[in-house]
Design goal:
1 helix; 53 strands; mainly beta; 6-stranded mixed beta sheet; 10-stranded antiparallel beta sheet; Immunoglobulin-like
Length: 756
């Protein structure tokens, strides 16, 4: 008899956790928004490539590439692809011609032009009179007049406070350096000449008023000023020691403002797709009893050292870098004080640890009337750095409990072996080596496989495999005979053993055994929530319960209930279905309100064993469309088009949860009394044809407010008898900033150059 190897396979079952819309029990749908981008200029922005990160928990390999779909008003260039775990797509921009403000400065951004404006003031030789020079705007000439000094000093220090006028001639705007609002340089040739205006700032060095007159500014101010410049006395002016000339001046900062027409590009929308949920990784636990060898072990009047190797094998999962740690536990059954824990941080899909501190004291064997059996409880756990999304929900770890039984016998071992197999009286060669393993725990009525394939003959071949287990029903054998399928009836609940004897061609034999604990045939109740877990969509409840094969579930005993979780948004009145939830395998249900709901299932098998399970799941809201549209801001009436302004509108709205915008209504209202308020104006519908790009023709100069309303239709199955037209979501542009919804219609001024 040789080593006993015990193995069991576990797939973790968790309650579903809805983070995206489920399309089927094994498929979910999600979407990734493309940032709304408007006002891009330049040929390089006529198409734009986007690289989008996948949502957390979605593996690129799980994406159903045939379902990749762009939802929006841009055109897709080429195909949407998945490269290096990201979505890639290229869109053609929506074009429009828009007017943008531009600014002309002296040489760099916000470096204003400075005009020095002032008047020459002269003191006569008597030291008591001043000559004032004043500009006459109407005739564009200088006029002089005399005033007496106001101070008592001789000569007078300052001229009396006197109002005067002067003028400023701005530079030609073609000498300015022009910039956009984003501080990018703009060619002067693209600036609309009729849009150019001079913008002055406050006077520096004194106070006054600034008035435009033709191609110049008229500046009215008071002398004296803070800025003074001594002037040379001209030959034709009065001579004398007290004669002085001064330029009293101010500084007038200014810049230019204009408009350019440019082609702009905008982008918006989202990419939706379905992705397959993983079956989920599975963890196989394997226990090898290294010592004693063999097991069962013949008592030799001494302590029996026990050495166990516990191994974990992770399958159905490729991302080993997401493994955080392996944890191994071993203890004598129902003896927590003997617990031994070991960890491994290797990022590998297999890991193992040996436990060698255990022993069976000889006193326990001697004090036992029968053979002494020590059961060891073991558990292997693998933990993940990031949760893994599967059909059953998100998991962050997998664990599997195992058992190993070590027997020390005084007379005969507990394991029974096949009878009537005798070795030849004069054996030749070397005997075979028997090895057997089977699940250490099995439900009554469930079939298990006793595996003797690890047996071998060192000098030949094994020609026979003979299995035995008291009270078991053997169902079948493999063609070679090294695998036996069997099951235990409910009467065999408790500890059982399976013996294997192998025979080689020399008729030499060897035997090995393993222990199997048979547990009660309790069914496993499981309810799967499929369909679309979304408000007013069809949700499918599927009974996935299981029971031991030979004690199946009685369908007529199955009962399902659904209720809203208190305080979590839903209500029992919102749960809609037809017929009964009892005795069914599958049922379509609709939830009229979002929130958390709980479904409970009760099942019973032919032996009367029963089980109950509940699943809490989220019904997500049916979100309204995300609204946004772009307008040109300002448009000019075009004489070549009947003196009408053509306003191009682009709808950048989209459904954030994968529905379809099936109706678009466009309206405007006109500020007819020019009071900068639309509250007293009426809305006029100008399109109800589901247009996402359209031209609005306007005749009157003034301000218009645009309103856009979008209506959705379902893009996932529903149950028609429980929904109405009012259940389809819609939204309007009321939340969009008012400045983005206003269009100003202005007259197109004459084109021409400035003359200075």
């Amino acid at each position: 008899m040789r080593k006993i190897i015990i193995t069991i396979l576990c797939i973790m079952i968790l309650s579903p956790f809805a983070t995206f819309t489920a399309q089927a029990a094994d498929t979910k749908s999600t979407s990734i928004a493309i940032p709304i981008t408007t006002g891009l200029t330049g040929a390089a922005n006529s198409t734009k490539s986007f690289t989008l990160d996948l949502p957390s928990g979605v593996a690129s390999t799980s994406i159903k590439t045939g379902t990749l779909k762009y939802n929006g008003n841009n055109a897709v260039v080429g195909n949407i692809s998945v490269v290096n775990g990201k979505l890639h797509l290229t869109l053609k921009g929506n074009e429009r011609t828009e007017s943008f403000p531009v600014y002309g400065y002296e040489d760099r951004w916000e470096n204003n032009f400075i005009s020095n404006v002032g008047n020459s003031i002269w003191r006569y030789s008597d030291g008591k009179r001043w000559q004032i020079n004043n500009y006459i705007p109407e005739s564009r000439t200088q006029h002089t007049f005399n005033v007496n000094a106001a101070d008592s000093a001789v000569p007078s220090n300052f001229p009396p406070t006197t109002p005067v006028k002067t003028f400023s001639e701005p530079v030609n705007p073609n000498t300015a350096t022009w910039f956009s609002a984003s501080e990018e340089k703009v060619s002067f040739s693209s600036v609309l000449q009729s849009s150019i205006q001079i913008k002055h700032l406050d006077l520096q060095g004194g106070s006054g008023t600034i008035s435009p007159l033709g191609d110049r500014y008229i500046v009215a101010y008071t002398v004296p000023t803070a800025f003074i410049k001594e002037e040379k006395v001209s030959d034709d002016f009065d001579k004398g020691a007290w004669v002085v000339g001064r330029l009293y001046h101010l500084k007038l900062p200014y810049y230019f403002k204009g408009e350019v027409k440019q082609t702009t590009y905008s982008y918006a929308g989202n990419v939706s797709f379905d992705y397959a949920l993983q079956e989920g990784p599975s963890l196989t636990g394997l226990v090898v009893v290294n010592k004693p060898d063999p097991n069962p072990f013949k008592y030799a009047n001494a302590d029996v050292p026990v050495n166990l190797t516990l191994k974990g094998i992770l399958s159905g999962y490729e991302n080993s870098s997401n493994i955080a740690e392996w944890v191994f536990y071993a203890q004598e059954k129902e003896s927590p004080s003997t617990l031994d824990t070991k960890k491994s941080f290797e990022k590998s899909k297999t890991s193992s640890q040996a436990f060698s501190k255990f022993k069976i004291p000889k006193m326990k064997v001697e004090n036992s009337k029968d053979n002494y059996q020590q059961v060891y409880e073991l558990r292997v756990t693998v933990r993940f750095s990031k949760p893994i999304e599967t059909k059953e929900g998100k998991i962050d770890q997998l664990s599997e409990k195992l058992e190993a039984t070590v027997e020390v016998y005084k007379g005969e071992p507990t394991v029974s072996f096949p009878p009537n197999i005798e070795e030849p009286p004069t054996p030749k060669g070397r005997p075979p080596v028997a090895s057997i393993f089977a699940n250490p725990i099995v439900k009554a009525g469930d079939e298990l496989v006793a595996n003797g394939s690890g047996s071998y003959d060192p000098d030949g071949d094994i020609i026979g495999y003979y299995f035995a287990s008291e009270g078991a029903n053997f169902v079948s054998y493999s063609q070679k005979g090294d695998l036996a399928t069997l099951w235990y009836p409910s009467e065999r609940v408790g500890q059982n053993s399976i013996g294997l004897t192998v025979v080689d061609k020399d008729m030499m034999i060897d035997s090995a055994g393993t222990f199997v604990r048979v547990i009660e045939p309790i069914p496993e109740a499981l309810l799967e929530i499929g369909g679309t877990k979304k408000q007013n969509r069809k949700v499918t409840l599927i009974d996935k319960s299981t029971s031991p094969k030979h004690y199946p579930i009685k369908t007529d005993k199955t009962k399902i209930t659904i209720s809203a979780v208190a305080g979590a948004g839903g209500s029992n009145a919102a749960i809609k279905y037809s017929g009964s939830l009892n005795g069914i395998y599958q049922k379509d249900v609709l939830f009229r309100e979002p929130g958390l709901y709980k479904a409970t299932i009760y099942v019973e098998n032919t032996l009367g064993y029963s089980a109950t399970n509940e699943v809490t799941f989220e019904i997500v809201p049916d979100d309204p469309p995300v609204m946004y549209f772009s307008t040109p801001g300002r448009v000019y009436r075009d004489p070549q088009k009947g003196n009408k302004a053509i306003v191009t509108l682009d709808d950048l709205s989209y459904s954030p949860d994968g529905d379809i915008i099936s109706r678009r209504v466009w309206e405007y209202r006109f500020d007819s009394d020019n009071d900068k308020s639309f509250a007293d104006e009426s809305w006029v519908v100008f399109s109800d044809a589901n247009e996402h790009r359209l031209n609005l023709e306007l005749s009157h100069v003034g301000r218009y407010e645009i309103r856009h309303t979008a209506y959705e239709s379902f893009n996932q199955p529903t149950i028609d008898e429980f929904v109405t037209a009012a259940d389809r979501r819609h939204a309007d542009s009321s939340d969009q900033h008012i400045d983005e919804k206003i269009v100003e219609v202005v007259n197109l001024g004459p084109e021409g150059d400035w003359t200075w």
